[in-house]
Amino acid sequence: MNPLSQPGVRFMDRFTDQVHFNDCKISCGNADKELKQNTKHLDKLQDKISVNIGTYYAGTDASLPLSGRYQAIAASILFSSRAEHWRARHVTGKVTAPDAELYAIRSAIVNATSRDDCTDIFIFTDLMASARRAVDPSIHYGQGHSVAVCEALQTWLTQKDGQSITFVYVPLRLQWDLHYKAHEYATELKVALGPHPAISFDSLRMQAALSCGASWNVLFQDPKYRGQNFLHLKTVNRAIAQPGGKDNPWVHFANMSSPQLYARMCRCILNHAPIGSYYSRFNLNHGHTFCPCGCPWETRTHILTCKQTYCPPRACELWLPATLCYLHSFLEMNPKVFTFRSTPPVGIG
Q1: Strands 19-22 and 55-63: what pairing?
Q2: What gap in Å lies between CA 63 and CA 61, rounded to an integer?
Q3: pTM metric for this prediction
Q4: 285 with 349: CB under 8 angstroms?
Q5: CA of 152: how far to CAs of 48, 80, 149, in Å?
Q6: CA-to-CA distance for 168 and 170, rounded, in angstroms?
Q7: 3-class SS of residue 126
Q8: What's the Cα-to-Cα distance from 345 to each of 69, 190, 221, 286, rounded to whole Å?
Q9: What is the DSSP letter of 15?
């Protein structure tokens, strides 16, 4: 364990008041207005810090070509008083975007802290997770970059009172000024992977996840693997929902749902729910199979189409839940559907 990662002497334990994170989250309910407000906020911040002699600010960015044939590039450009003082880009190998961004942040900070007249530092980045990792010297891939950052900042911050560093989030879609210059600087360089590129553990884990997702998709096409009870749904663009990695459509709805609603969604999709057909299939609940509406056979299809007991989403004209969006809305409109009406009988759940 690196000495800087020990409790009590960690960098953030000692300098928490001198390290700031500006997430720049402006929400006004309109995407275009939010972009304009973010740009205005960043412009004002740049105007403020550019007039301070001794304040250095840098745009950092990483380029990760999607083709998989090129290495990732980390780029940093350092400014002070609106003048560019230094720029550098590094070939980082076969790594993830956060790995390369961490390298770019390290490069900028180490250079800025080496300047005698530097009193404040601002780092503009589009990956705040990498910014927080930069000041965390605990064990993780890229720990060497984090340790180098912490050592440089620790020496710099103890030299004089009142010095600080601020990490500022810049959404890439803004294409904002100095951060976009770093983005262009990173993307214009293409370096082939070659026979033996540097590879990070995070990159290997990402490859493994993508491989598992692809294999899962292939297996999912087999009806025997998928099972006859699986509810086939479509995404917003009418494509059949397919499993995959962390970006699969079901996980997307999990992120925008409560755990309780997502549990009910899983029960519905798998047809593994406390309803009459399930009780009958496993000979549970003393043969209770009827629906509250009086129908003697309570099935998933009946529940999704029974207007007497359940309310269909007002904004959707479809009769059956052909899309994930419809099902999500149906479950929101009917908070008791696919829930246990009382304590589940022994063996259910």
Answers
A1: unpaired
A2: 7
A3: 0.71
A4: no
A5: 25, 19, 5
A6: 6
A7: coil
A8: 57, 63, 35, 10
A9: S
- Boundaries of CATH 3.30.420.10 in the chain? 3-192
pLDDT given for residue 339 in this prediction? 87
In terms of C-beta distances under 8 Å and separation of at least 24 residues, what long-range contacts does 137-144 make, across chains too?
A: 137/2, 137/4, 137/5, 137/10, 137/11, 138/5, 138/10, 139/1, 139/5, 141/99, 141/200, 141/201, 141/202, 142/99, 142/102, 142/103, 142/200, 143/2, 143/5
Dmax (CA) for the chain in angstroms is 83
Closest CA to 106 of 137, 72, 81: 137
Which of 237-246, 286-295, 336-345 is most confident? 286-295
Instruction: Break the chain down into helix, strand, coil percent, rounded to 5.
Output: 40, 15, 45
Q: What tokens does 265 get?
A: 């969604």
Give me the DSSP letters along 263-311.
HHHHHHHHT-SSSHHHHHHTT-GGG----TTS-S---HHHHHH-TTTSP
What is the band of 183 on the pLDDT scale with cuts at 50, 70, 90? very high
Sheet containing strand 83-93, edge to edge, reads 19-22, 164-169, 120-125, 55-63, 72-80, 83-93
Chain centroid to Cα 304, Å, comes to 33
Instruction: Return the closest-CA partner of residue 49 out of 36, 58, 37, 39.
Output: 58
The architecture (CATH level 2) of 3-192 comes to 2-Layer Sandwich (3.30)
| Angle between helices 143-157 and 97-113 in degrees, nearest 10 | 20
How many Å apart are CA 58 and CA 109, to the nearest integer?
8
Digit-coded pLDDT (tens) for 58-110: 999 999 988 878 999 999 999 999 999 999 999 999 999 999 999 999 999 99
